[in-house]
Amino acid sequence: MYDPRVVRGNTYAAKNLPLHSEPDPLERHKQEEMKRRAKARKRAAEKRRIKTPEPVEGRRHVEVQTDLYLEELYDKVPEAIAATQTDLFLDRAPSPLYIPQKSGIDAATQIYDGELFDFNFEVEPILEVLVGKTLEQALIEVMEEEELEMLRKHQVEFEEKRNAELAEVQRLEDAERRRTDEKNRRIAEKLKLMEEKKEVAEKIAARSFTNAYLSNLIPSVFETLNDNGFFYDPRETEIENYFLPWLTHKSNNYVDKIRTSRLLLDHIILDSIRQLNSIGRPILRGLKERKIKKQKKYVSREDWMDPEMIFKCVESKPSNY
């Protein structure tokens, strides 16, 4: 791998590397200018190259073979049939047994009876060993059976002792449990008796306190209830709750009727006075003039507007007026 920062070979003509890794602006400008010129030359060469003119209307360009040797073209690929025949497969013969090649020299010898082994003589130690081992094994088995019998007897004795001890322990535990139950029962009875005594004492104290407290409470309660109206007379309550509201309602209706009739009467009287005033005004005017002529006396307008004066004028009206 080439790295310009690594100096290789002679260092006398080594290049001076810049302190910073950025390229020189002048070098970068030169490289860009060279790339721009190369692109311009390429575009000029493309423009100078003669291109095939466009086909006229109704025609189109077709690729034509321009090689030196013409090649006949077919729509269908040529085909050929080939065949071959092989010989029949024969079974391979079985492989012969492998017999290694002999090495060494054959030799032979002759042994007569009694030269190598005497059965009667050689069998005695073997029989002694077999009989001894058998007797030893038998003795070991007998000793094992005796030991097992002793172990069984010891186990039976141990179980009897253990059962007796367990029975004794159970008896002691039962006795201790009975004593504990009796103790707990007596403690519970004592506590219950003490609680009953305490409860009786509390009841007696509460009864005495209640009697002392209620001796003055009951009269005050009855007085308060009586003052608040909880003890009432049924007739008085019925009169207050039913009769008096009904009577008040009827009285109000009667008073309303009287007030309405009076208002109607006042309106009737006022209308009558207005009608009489409108009718008797000319009469009053004539009477006034007549009275002035007779008596030569001044009468105020308020006197003439008095209803009594109007009625008097009406009564004293001449028949030919």
TrEMBL record:
<keyword id="KW-0175">Coiled coil</keyword>
<keyword id="KW-0206">Cytoskeleton</keyword>
<feature type="compositionally biased region" description="Basic and acidic residues">
    <location>
        <begin position="21"/>
        <end position="35"/>
    </location>
</feature>
<keyword id="KW-0282">Flagellum</keyword>
<dbReference type="InterPro" id="IPR009290">
    <property type="entry name" value="Radial_spoke_3"/>
</dbReference>
<feature type="region of interest" description="Disordered">
    <location>
        <begin position="1"/>
        <end position="49"/>
    </location>
</feature>
<keyword id="KW-0963">Cytoplasm</keyword>
<keyword id="KW-0597">Phosphoprotein</keyword>
<keyword id="KW-0969">Cilium</keyword>
<keyword id="KW-0966">Cell projection</keyword>
<comment type="similarity">
    <text>Belongs to the flagellar radial spoke RSP3 family.</text>
</comment>
<dbReference type="GO" id="GO:0005929">
    <property type="term" value="C:cilium"/>
</dbReference>
<dbReference type="Pfam" id="PF06098">
    <property type="entry name" value="Radial_spoke_3"/>
</dbReference>
<protein>
    <submittedName>
        <fullName>Radial spoke 3</fullName>
    </submittedName>
</protein>
<feature type="coiled-coil region">
    <location>
        <begin position="155"/>
        <end position="204"/>
    </location>
</feature>
<feature type="compositionally biased region" description="Basic residues">
    <location>
        <begin position="36"/>
        <end position="49"/>
    </location>
</feature>
